[in-house]
Amino acid sequence: MASTKDLVLCIDPVAKPRMTQSDKWNQRPEVVKYRRFSMALMLLCNRHQYVPGDTLSMTFILPMPTSWNAAKRGRMDGMPHTQRPDLSNLVKAFEDALLKNDEGIHTYVGIKKIWGKEGRIVLHFHENGTFAYTNYANVEPGHEKPDTTLAGRSDSDAGNGRGDTQAAAGNGHP
Predict the structure, then answer these.
(1) Strands (E), the chain
(2) What backbone torsions phi and psi does residue 43 show, to the nearest 5 degrees?
(3) Whole-model pTM?
(4) Which residue among 4, 49, 159, 160 sits deepest, i.e. has the most Cβ atoms within 10 Å of its Cβ?
(5) Strand partners, 133
(6) Category of 120 on φ-ψ map: left (φ > 0), alpha (ψ -120 to 50) or beta
(7) Cβ atoms within 10 A of the Cβ of 140, count?
(8) Gap between the Cα atoms of 95 and 104, Å rounded
(9) What is the DSSP letter of 173?
(10) Which helix (H) or strand (E) element contains residue 86?
(11) What domain count does the chain have?
(12) Which three-class secondary structure state does DSSP give residue 21?
């Protein structure tokens, strides 16, 4: 069994929008939302001294719509997110916020998007080069889940109203 450490960023993932020259002066809502996400993500990653390496492994947890009833929310929690936004646009937004150039990352492993109660980005770090996956859709700040221990919750806010991050360490499953 591989040993894994994960950094859970409590931020709603935002996809990179298609942008034009006019977006420099025309403040379209989707571009403003993306820019706010980008700044908040940079602050969170700087606070935890995270810099993307040459291999990227992560899970995007997208919040379920509040219009869903409790039964549907229970069924969909942790399930694959098969709607918009595209996974590639989520990854592009993540990379563009943290990398000055479009170089450096040469391997993508285990990148996925799932439904969750709240939006999060889980960055997976693996000690022995193997990749393990844990369902983080149900991880609540300050609570323990099977094979997962949460610690390091910060009280500061990065602009998303829920606090900033959690560092999760535990054993994944190969």
Answers:
(1) 3-9, 55-56, 58-63, 107-108, 112-116, 120-126, 148-151, 165-171
(2) -65, -45
(3) 0.69
(4) 4
(5) 173
(6) beta
(7) 11
(8) 10
(9) B
(10) none
(11) 1
(12) helix
The chain-wide mean pLDDT, for the chain, equals 74
Instruction: Measure the CA–CA gap between 155 and 152, rounded to whole angstroms.
Output: 10
- Provide the β-strand partners of residue 107: 55
Of 20, 13, 17, 12, nearest in space to 29 by CA: 17
Q: What angle do CA 147, 149, 150 make, to 5 degrees?
A: 145
Q: Give the pLDDT confidence of 27-79 residue by residue, as tens digits.
A: 888 888 888 999 999 999 989 888 887 788 899 999 999 999 999 999 999 99
Identity (one letter) of the amino acid at 150?
L
56: CB partners within 8 A, 6+ apart:
91, 105, 107, 108, 109, 111
Note down the domain range covering 42: 3-171
Q: Which two tokens stand for residue 112?
A: 């996925």
Bridge partners for 151 per DSSP: 167
